[in-house]
Amino acid sequence: MLRDDQLAIYKKDMYKAEREGMIQVKPKVSEIFRIIPSNTGGGDKRTQLLGAGRLTRHTVEGQDIRFKSPVQGWETLTKFHTYSAGLALTKESVEDTTKGGNLLKDLARTWGKYGTIAKEEMGARVFNKGGDLTPGDWVYDGSHPGNTDSSAGLLYDSVELFNLTGNTRTTKGGGTYYNSVAGLTVTAGNFETIYNLQTATNNRDEEDEIVGNPVDTALCTPGSNKFLLDRIVDTSKGMPGGQLNDKNPYYNIVDKVIDWDYLSSTGGWFVGKRNHEKFCFCERQGQETDFYRHKPNKGYRAAVDMRFGVWLQEGSWKAWGRAGGTSTTGNYPN
Fold it and tell me: What's the pLDDT at 100?
């Protein structure tokens, strides 16, 4: 039989192999979302308080200050989802071979890779399902024990993340906005359309005051869209697709083009701000691996679990503008 100290060695080997395995997959979630470490609970909640209002210019000496009560804005929630996997090993498979440790390390390496993939899939799902109409998609539902998300499978304001001009969202100040334009392929002119929508139209806060809404990233699927966007923003001379040698006004207007394998080929392409403060990915618990005896048959068990979730806080719809893509009825809660 394996001694307790040998079991401990196997566990250490598995943790080491997980770290090595994660290197095999180059994650993009940390480039796109703001990562928030979370340590407690089944989720989290945030209530927005709107600003105290703009300052009033005094027209007479000794004029009284105008006071107002704080106003509640939107409530946003996130749920920490649990992901797990396990393997049953017989007593003989472990104890009758000197390669038991290698078997476990190979297994753990796979878990490390698939743990990263699970995060990538959830992060990309925010974009892939961003146009889903009522009832939306589970990735936006922040309901967790003790807290019910009133908007369920939609964004906190009960509108899909990427909404079209015919389905605008309304701020607390009464303004109406959209951040998606249908049917746009990757061209210089269409890039300018989304860039202007983000920086010159959606540069408003919840009370419709003008605020900066800068962008620094273009996001797309790998392949032709990546090449086209590189030509648009990384060519200093000559308009993309043209023959004139004039200065390219789009040159370096965003400093990064990210191609993401997990984006849907029909999901469109995006212009926005990476690591936006309201566009969050919560790390509740990293991968935890365990290896233990299963007493009923004297075999062994190997198990891994982790917890994480996305948190789209108030104003998160301004983080990215979508070009192209589809807007279809969602299949929440599936």
Answer: 59
Q: How far apart are CA 57 and CA 66, in angstroms?
A: 11
From residue 235, alpha-carbon distances to 109, 185, 187, 256, 282 in Å are 41, 19, 14, 13, 37
* Residue 80 confidence (pLDDT): 97
Q: What is the pLDDT of residue 277?
A: 97
Cα(116)–Cα(100) distance, rounded to whole angstroms? 25
Distance CA 313, CA 60 (A): 41
Residue 181 · residue 197 · CB < 8 Å: yes
- Predicted local distance difference test score (pLDDT) of residue 74: 95
Cα-to-chain-centroid distance, residue 163: 17
CA distance 209 to 203: 8
> Which token pair is 46?
């945030």
Pairing relationship of beta strands 256-259 and 217-220 according to DSSP bridges: parallel
Q: What pTM was computed for the model?
A: 0.89
Rounded to 5°, angle at Cα 237 from 232 and 242: 65
4-44+74-323: CATH architecture: Alpha-Beta Complex (3.90)
Domain boundaries along the sequence of the chain: 4-44+74-323
CB atoms within 10 A of CB 139: 25
Long-range contacts of 66-71 (CB under 8 A, 24+ apart): 71/172
Q: Please, what are the averages of pLDDT over each run of 10 residues along the chain (334 residues)?
A: 60 70 79 92 91 83 85 94 90 69 72 92 98 97 96 97 97 96 96 98 95 97 96 80 72 96 95 98 92 86 93 98 95 90
Euclidean distance between CA atoms 318 and 268, whole angstroms:
17
Give, in degrees to the nearest 5, the angle at Cα 171 between 45 and 215: 80
pLDDT at 1: 46
Residue 123: CB atoms within 10 A of its CB come to: 24
Report which secondary-structure segment, H or E, holds 181. strand 180-181
